[in-house]
């Protein structure tokens, strides 16, 4: 195997702890459960036939299902996610929750416009459909059996952001940065119209140079995202910056990308290691304060 | 214990598909190329708007933002009108008419306009000028 191939193999199939896999799997199930239960899917009824454009795996539907059917899928998906968190029939319940989420998000996508809000969580959760189910959920020793679902999920997330930057360069070239693109995108505002923070939009569009700086930073950030796959210490920074950009696009365009933010933080951080580090720090501080 | 050959194949095929869609630009939701905000915007754009016409000939904007979620992205099927078949156009018009009638309007026809819009900075404010062109009309949808 070449050096590059060996590095890629190590990065993709390297070890992680059973505790981290348990935590990431649970976090994804919670996110999926929340999206399934809280999503505005029942409001998709009525969608008239002429405006119903289902994705390829829903073409067997002649029209939008009724609110009752959609609610039933939400109940089944939410229950399945809750049962997975309790580790009841985990292989089956995670799959049922994921399929319910796929169906519901697919219905939301079935209105003629490609919706990206749910794709990152859906795709990053795919490796976990086949992931091992460790019994020793507090075991922190790295084990090669448990690393690949987390690392594959991280690579999917990194590729998602990378392709977002890649297509900006392919379709618009450097003019995406050097023109008034970002400033005018914000000035035009969200389409379809939704509520946004107009004062923030006015501030950003008041300074032409600010739009160019935001554009340059965004492209550099997205194109460099695969670094986060190979460089674990950088992940927290990539997650924090990506979250900030999503919050900004929420205020400027009303775009709901909290599923992307949740996916980032669930997969990019080794939470059991964080908990241990915080506990050790508390013990050290308590020891330093102890008399004598 | 290292991952089995089956796991490696599963991971390899899955990542291969994600990268194929990303690099080539295929779209088969939820597989996607992640083309988010990829086309640079300038000071002009083309939008599409539906208006309903009542029996007295009075035009009213469809205003899908005030209708249920299923109608709110109605502009996207309209933007495909230049390449849509007559049957598809008629189906979209029927859908728009249904939404307007459910909202209590009288609908004798649906008109689809192509709007050429321009945005300018005027006195610390943004002003949009719109030039509508009647693109298609569906009678008795």
Describe it.
The complex is a heterodimer of chains A (292) and B (141). In chain A, helix 2 packs across helix 4 (90-109). Chain A has helices at 3-13, 18-38, 67-85, 90-109, 119-124, 126-129, 144-172, 175-178, 181-188, 198-206, 208-223, 227-230, 235-253, 258-268, 271-289, and strands spanning 16-17, 142-143. The model of chain A has no long low-confidence stretch (mean pLDDT 95). Chain A has a two-stranded antiparallel ribbon. Chain A has 292 residues and is an all-alpha fold. In chain B, strand 1 and strand 2 (59-61) form a beta hairpin. Chain B is elongated, with a radius of gyration of 22 Å. The mean pLDDT of chain B is 94. The chains are: A mainly alpha (292), B alpha+beta (141).
The first-to-last residue Cα distance of chain B is 65 Å
Give the overall form of chain B.
elongated
End-to-end separation of chain A? 58 Å
What structural class do you assign from the helix and strand content of chain A?
Answer: mainly alpha
Mean pLDDT level of chain A = 95
- Proportion in helices of chain B: 25-40%
The low-confidence runs of chain B, each spanning 5 or more residues with pLDDT under 50, are: none
From the alpha-carbon coordinates, what is the Rg of chain B to the nearest angstrom? 22 Å
């Amino acid at each position: 195997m070449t050096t590059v191939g060996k590095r890629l193999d190590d990065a993709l199939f390297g070890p992680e702890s059973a505790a981290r896999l348990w935590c990431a799997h649970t976090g994804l199930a919670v996110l999926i459960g929340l999206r399934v239960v809280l999503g505005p899917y029942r409001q998709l009824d009525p969608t008239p036939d002429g405006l119903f454009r289902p994705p390829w795996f829903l073409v067997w539907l002649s029209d939008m299902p009724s609110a009752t059917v959609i609610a039933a899928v939400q109940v089944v998906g939410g229950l399945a996610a809750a049962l997975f968190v309790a580790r009841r029939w985990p292989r089956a319940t995670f799959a049922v929750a994921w399929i319910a989420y796929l169906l519901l998000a697919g219905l939301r996508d079935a209105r003629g416009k490609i919706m990206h809000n749910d794709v990152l969580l859906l795709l990053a959760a795919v490796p976990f459909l086949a992931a091992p189910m460790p019994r020793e959920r507090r075991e922190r020793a790295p084990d090669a059996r448990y690393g690949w679902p987390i690392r594959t999920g991280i690579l999917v997330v990194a590729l998602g952001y990378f392709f977002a930057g890649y297509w900006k360069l392919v379709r618009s070239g450097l003019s995406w940065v050097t023109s008034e693109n970002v400033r005018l995108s914000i000035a035009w505002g969200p389409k379809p119209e939704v509520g946004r923070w107009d004062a923030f939009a006015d501030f950003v569009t008041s300074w032409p140079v600010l739009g160019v700086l935001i554009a340059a930073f965004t492209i550099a950030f997205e194109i460099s995202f695969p670094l986060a796959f190979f460089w674990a210490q950088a992940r927290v920074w990539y997650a924090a910056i990506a979250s900030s950009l999503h919050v900004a696009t929420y205020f400027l365009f009303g775009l709901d990308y909290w599923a992307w933010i949740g996916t980032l933080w669930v997969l990019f951080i080794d939470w059991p290691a964080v908990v241990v580090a915080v506990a050790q720090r508390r013990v050290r501080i308590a020891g330093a304060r102890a008399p004598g | 214990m290292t991952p089995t050959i089956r796991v490696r194949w599963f991971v390899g095929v899955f990542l291969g598909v994600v990268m194929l869609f990303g690099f080539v630009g295929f779209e088969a939701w939820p597989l996607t190329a992640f083309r988010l905000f990829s086309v640079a915007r300038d000071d002009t754009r083309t939008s599409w708007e539906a208006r309903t016409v009542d029996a007295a000939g009075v035009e009213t904007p469809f205003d899908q933002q005030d209708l249920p979620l299923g109608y709110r992205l109605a502009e996207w099927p309209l933007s495909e009108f230049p390449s849509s078949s007559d049957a598809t156009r008629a189906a979209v018009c029927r859908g728009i008419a249904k939404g307007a009638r459910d909202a209590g309007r009288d609908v004798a026809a649906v008109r689809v306009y192509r709007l050429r819009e321009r945005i300018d900075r005027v006195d610390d404010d943004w002003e949009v000028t719109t030039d509508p062109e009647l693109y298609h009309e569906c009678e008795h949808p």
